[in-house]
Amino acid sequence: MSEEDYYELLGVSRDASAEEIKKAYRKKAIQFHPDKNPDDPSAEEKFKEISEAYEVLKDSEKKAAYDRFGHAAFKQSARGGGGGGFHDPFDIFKEVFGSGGGGVGGGIFEEFFGGGRSSQGGAQRGSDLRYDLEISLEEAAKGVTKEISYRRAVPCNRCEGSGSEPDSRTIRCSTCGGSGQVTSSRGFFSVRQSCPGCHGSGVVMENPCKKCQGEGRVMETSKVKLHIPAGVETGSKLRSAGNGEAGNLGGVSGDLYVVIHLKEHDIFERQGDNLFCEIPIKFTLAALGGTIDLPTLTGKASLKIPAGTQSGTTFRLRGHGVPNLRSGRKGDQLVRMQIEVPAKLKADQRKLLEDFAIACGDAENPVSKTFLKKAKQFFE
Q1: Would 341 be classed as within a structural domain?
Q2: Which tens digit of pLDDT belongs to each residue from 237-285?
Q3: What gap in Å lies between CA 203 and CA 272, rounded to an integer?
Q4: Has residue 299 been placed in a domain?
Q5: What is the pLDDT of residues 100-132, one digit of tens each?
Q6: What is the CATH number of the domain that holds 289?
Q7: DSSP 11-75
Q8: 42 in a domain, yes or no?
Q9: Residue 290 has pLDDT above 90, yes or no
């Protein structure tokens, strides 16, 4: 058991909320996970320490005991046996992150909370999994089919998910008496938790399967094809039923949740169902008016620029946005004019502009006149 302060290990204050503790743990766990630090033996030890800290601080009763008695609240139960102590920190890690990662779009694969619900016969429902998938704005607007690859627990083909060798049987766990839970005394508190002997199932294998060591499942790479509908945006979630982790001892599989993230676009910024972009135009075009070609997600479009258009004027191209995920109706494209001023002028060009400025005076510049009227008091 680590003697370092649990709050300092996770980098949170003592009054941190449960959500802040969870976020801090996730960040630290990614940083020190042994898979990401194969050449650093100290990373695994650090990982175990932060997992131990999270195991205590995520539980309100354990946290209260720790806040009052510190590490002493857990030393007695850790020495006393009978299922007291801590679980394998890698099991704690699975509560947040699942068993693997990678795949299309550099997705990060993590476990949703609430998996592993028990059912009859000691079987447990598999955990839900999360996969973060990055797609382009064009793909989000049109819809796309993607195949993702990820690691997950699947039923063992040797024992068909039972966890036992052929002709073997399950027996009641002697540690918890088949209840799947044990109670330990920690200071003035009695804490009930999953049995470390059977991991909450209530049963153990008389002759565990040699391939899966009695768990009933093994890790494999799975591939899933997903149809991503038009209109998804960053944060949209797609559910693929039964493609999460297989349950323990034949329990039903969890679900796979794919969370969409849109790549940053070179031209367009998405604002709900609308698209926004800035288009540079010459100041002569803004003054005289004309027609320009501009990009849309479906190709080139023409836009008429009225004479006297001011910088910052925004035009609306109806129906050139992104389809609404529910109604399918497209949003608009908003185009803001950004008037370019020549950086360098030849002598004859400068003379023409100077003559033009004298000819215009203030009469033909309504924006300037309005501003000067508002700012007059500051010049007096």
Answers
A1: yes
A2: 999 999 999 887 677 899 999 999 999 999 999 999 999 999 999 989 9
A3: 52
A4: yes
A5: 333 333 333 333 333 444 443 456 788 899 999
A6: 2.60.260.20
A7: T--TT--HHHHHHHHHHHHHHH-GGG-TT-HHHHHHHHHHHHHHHHHTSHHHHHHHHHHTTHHHH
A8: no
A9: yes
